[in-house]
Amino acid sequence: MTGGLIGSDTPLADRFDLALVDLDGVAYRGHEPIDGAAEGLTAARERGMRLVFVTNNASREPESVADQLTDLGIVTHASEVMTAAQAAAQLLRTRLPRGSKVLVVGGAGLVTAVRLAGYEVVHSADDEPAAVAQGFSPEVGWPQLAEAAYAVGRGAWHVASNLDLSLPTARGFAPGNGSLVGAVQAATGVVPDSAGKPSPTMYQMAVERVGARETLVIGDRLDTDLGGARAGGYIGLHVLTGVSSARDDVLAVPGERPHLIGADLRSLLVAHPEPHQAAEGWWTVRDASARVVDGRLELGRTADTSVEGQVDVVRAACAAAWASVDGGAELDPSSVPELATDLASP
């Protein structure tokens, strides 16, 4: 089956020696902890798994991110944080000589990364920057977006740290960097280049930084985290604590499908069953089952109401839906219910 779920007979923390972990919606939500995050990551480390936190957020310094994680019970050093700001700075280096002027629209993390890459940071289009580097910051407003639009309109190269349209916070979903980048794009008609996920650039940088035998990518968004895993050839684990839902998994396009699905980061500590095809078109995962008949998803009955039992239903539904779609059939989205809705969610 093209782009299907895989299984693991051993806990993921024992199988993979490196995990590239997203932050918002995975390790924390805004400034609030996520159930199971500290427990899962701490235990995974004790089993020998190394961690690098890879985030599309470019507003903060790695030291600040590490401090927040440590305060939430996930002891982290700045060297274990890879931000989209660092990836954007690396992307600038592919075309701009050191010493070039770069108009930075974003937070301290992006300013620092651009300066460390050897560029002169400016804040006005009248300084004639060669590029605009744009990343998320809560302080970004119309004046900064206008300067970016003026510069891009005059020919500056527009580089976005990422294109996430939204980001999870403790109060719900808020506009992300992609929404702010969209304002500049709408004003100029210029499509920016992006250094963040789903480009696998940051994943590759992280693996090169620490080295790894087998790498696992962990994220909450199919379009960025898991899309980046597929693009880079890495195994991707989707945890159901952030933006993309279990229903999104079932309806995912091949390039954004996860290889593994877990309720939260405690799923690093358990084995993951692989779906199997049974009689009459059913796909089974332990006690859960699902099939597609005449373009509609059908779920079998299961007596297992545990968290893992609910995730098994999601796994079986994904296996059935993906096999049907990959075989050339259509799947009616209205037949796919919301699944595992009582698991951790924003």
From TrEMBL:
GO terms for molecular function: phosphatase activity. It comes from the Bacteria. One of its GO terms (cellular component) is cytoplasm. Signal peptide: none annotated. Transmembrane segments: none annotated. SUPFAM superfamilies: HAD-like. Keywords: Hydrolase. This is HAD-IIA family hydrolase. It comes from Cellulomonas humilata.
